Amino acid sequence: xxxxxxxxxxxxxxxxxxxxxxxxxxxxxxxxxxxxxxxxxxxxxxxxxxxxxxxxxxxxxxxxxxxxxxxxxxxxxxxxxxxxxxxxxxxxxxxxxxxxxxxxxxxxxxxxxxxxxxxxxxxxxxxxxxxxxxxxxxxxxxxxxxxxxxxxxxxxxxxxxxxxxxxxxxxxxxxxxxxxxxxxxxxxxxxxxxxxxxxxxxxxxxxxxxxxxxxxxxxxxxxxxxxxxxxxxxxxxxxxxxxxxxxxxxxxxxxxxxxxxxxxxxxxxxxxxxxxxxxxxxxxxxxxxxxxxxxxxxxxxxxxxxxxxxxxxxxxxxxxxxxxxxxxxxxxxxxxxxxxxxxxxxxxxxxxxxxxxxxxxxxxxxxxxxxxxxxxxxxxxxxxxxxxxxxxxxxxxxxxxxxxxxxxxxxxxxxxxxxxxxxxxxxxxxxxxxxxxxxxxxxxxxxxxxxxxxxxxxxxxxxxxxxxxxxxxxxxxxxxxxxxxxxxxxxxxxxxxxxxxxxxxxxxxxxxxxxxxxxxxxxxxxxxxxxxxxxxxxxxxxxxx
Length: 545
Hints:
By secondary structure, the protein is mainly alpha-helical. It has 22 helices and no strands. α5 packs antiparallel against α13 and α12 crosses α16. The longest helix has about 50 residues, at about 155-205. The radius of gyration is 23 Å and the shape is globular. It starts with a helix and ends with a helix.
């Protein structure tokens, strides 16, 4: 096939994936206009299916594309980054049982036993929307850029048109399909990604006679940095500032702790039948994500061995083009029939990765709008207006998608890495301390919860404003301004301890008495029995036929 024919095949494949996703969401949409159906699919997902879907929620374009490029360019340091990706699921495995036992639909439901009022629920919903919106922009911008490059469309206008089209389609699919539709997308995406990466790894290893030592030798020879490739320090060489160690440790900490409690990942746990099923789902997802990460690492080494670090840095300075570039050089390149098939399969995997993650983020944001803000905060009702709640959630999905599309439309000219760092830092600094204290500290109070949620998120947003990610550098969000008095790229090493400290300080200074703030023993053990009478009434109302 010629290059034009390959791009045409990629376009057809992309359209087929989009149509299939829309059809699946229409076919698997909720059977009733009830929260139990729309938000969690009646909790009827088997552990294996939910493990595939949870892995799909967790595996983003950064996992598939970013890890490959980082390993290709940074060697040993890239392997460390890949390990952080897997470590986040280890953290989640420790929280999965208690989260499922105490949660119902959203993260705010986990906090309901500590603070049944509206203030904490609104704060949790706002933090959820902030994290989802920022990550939405990152994923939509990434899939727009990759799609445009695969189709040979290099103009910013074409990339923006693709971002708008994809965002609108996913918003419609999520509003119609609910959790069942999102689960189908996530599970299918995980299978596609795993199969595609395994095939490319097989072709790559065949070229080296299935000899890992030969692959490592070639990677060291051709990467452009020699023996330094397998030694620590290449990331520091790319950023020789005095704050490099602070930034590197902070970023890895935000990946490990923030990715573990991303709202769309936590909401996936609530789609399981009980706490034991949630733990099994996380363990299954850990195996799947580990396999995908190992494949990405091998392909990163393969890029250094076959393409070379110098060529990759010239074509794709950030390394995001490593996966497609390596795929295109295998099996005779994309001009051959076998190479074209492999190239298209990997392209489909990249498409599906971002589309499925965007769907999960949109569903989580819609739950925060419909369930937390409308039903619990505005209406303050337990059993009425169920149809109105789901309608509100659907319109919330549309509104959040519109905001995300607008930001992504503008962000194609910006450094979108900042959005990813802020989203992870907010989750690690606000949601993680609040969840850990809620689940495991009996003296944690409503004041401590509010201080953690609001203070942790505000700390990240305020401090990040005064870093070079926002001003002072050509790659900054506002390159012509100069208010970067903090020399750090990431503020996670400041904001995460601050979030924990605020939760502790707010609780020990709260003098209100008359309420036992300790979680019930069944929740601490990870039991699936609900903790609150209100939640029992909700479950009965939502499952009533």
